[in-house]
Amino acid sequence: MTNEQQSIRVNLCSSGKEKPQADQLAFGRSFTDHMFVMDYTEDEGWHEARIVPYAPLMIDPSAMVFHYSQSVFEGLKAYLNDDGEAQLFRPQRNFKRMNHSNDRLCIPPIDETFALKAVKQLVSIDKDWIPQAEGTSLYIRPFIISTEPFIGVAPSRHYQFMIILSPVGAYYEEGINPIKIAVENDYVRTVKGGTGEAKTGGNYAASLKAQEMAEEGIAQVLWLDGVERRYVEEVGSMNIFFKINGQVITPALNGSILDGVTRNSVIRLLQHWNVPVEERKISMDEIYQAYQEGTLEEAFGAGTAAVISPIGQLVWQEHMEINDGQTGAIAKSLYDTLTAIQYGKIPDPFNWIEKV
Ligand code: COI
Fold this sequence. Notes:
Keywords: Amino-acid biosynthesis, Aminotransferase, Branched-chain amino acid biosynthesis, Pyridoxal phosphate, Transferase. It catalyses: L-isoleucine + 2-oxoglutarate = (S)-3-methyl-2-oxopentanoate + L-glutamate; L-leucine + 2-oxoglutarate = 4-methyl-2-oxopentanoate + L-glutamate; L-valine + 2-oxoglutarate = 3-methyl-2-oxobutanoate + L-glutamate. By secondary structure, the chain is an alpha+beta fold. It has eight helices and 18 strands. The strands form two sheets. Strands 1, 2, 3, 4, 5, 6, 7, 8 and 18 form a nine-stranded mixed β-sheet that branches. A hairpin with a 5-residue loop joins strand 5 and strand 6 (86-89). Helix 2 (91-104) crosses helix 3 (112-125). It is globular, with a radius of gyration of 21 Å. The two termini are 25 Å apart. Bound molecules: 2-OXO-4-methylpentanoic acid.
């Protein structure tokens, strides 16, 4: 039986948890009533798909994930449109990327069609947890952990695939106002051939030290390539774009940069608007020179959690103020258009929306 034919056992029971107030929503602090779980063993493959009440897990302390971090995750969101329907944004790309990460981490692939069915069923069960206030949504976190009780270094033979849901507001304290980021000069996030392109927890664990050492007020650090330490890669939780002299540029995917769904959507939108956009190597020297010449017009990040996040200040050699610290016109148009598509307020010419 393929996963696609498998049915999902459902055990509904509300925890009676209070829903967080929509105007006080932090990012990722509260979770809905239910979660999706599915097991993997070598003999049975992925099996026993179920939606059960959200609860802590019972897991062996020797489970391999605790020791060697064989795990992957994804992030996408569900939005409520004006007709009260829940809708997802390009979810197929997330499950495709999850399988790419699985491959890198030696985790067995999931059936992408079945995973989408599971997300839809889970979101429709907890639909009344989707917040309605502007800028809020239901963040969806699919993840896989290695669960075999064994402390030898080898790919695990048992896994759990889970999906949890979290009603969220803005990712950054600054909301959609410009943030300040600093170029990281001491630590590296990854190198080509490493795991940078995979969405795995270890990449984020490795990033924490630099974030902690960064000066007060820095929302995130900007990673440079791990070899020459010259070329821009990505920010902690998002991809990065610059606008120089009318042209938008973003680092080309090189094996160590995450292939962001929002990154791809930004490129597609800019092309659709006939705004020149290029994916290529970008050195910090080039950015600094553009700043000194007055041609660095905008910088912004793009990610599922962060949406479009304007960068008002970039620290490298000096504190570079970009666009007088204000949100630039391109970042604003991208934010307005992307969110309008996501919330179903304007037509979706790209067929990005998947109704639940
Ligand atoms: C996302 O944007 O969904 C991410 O996974 C980034 C982050 C919250 C780690």
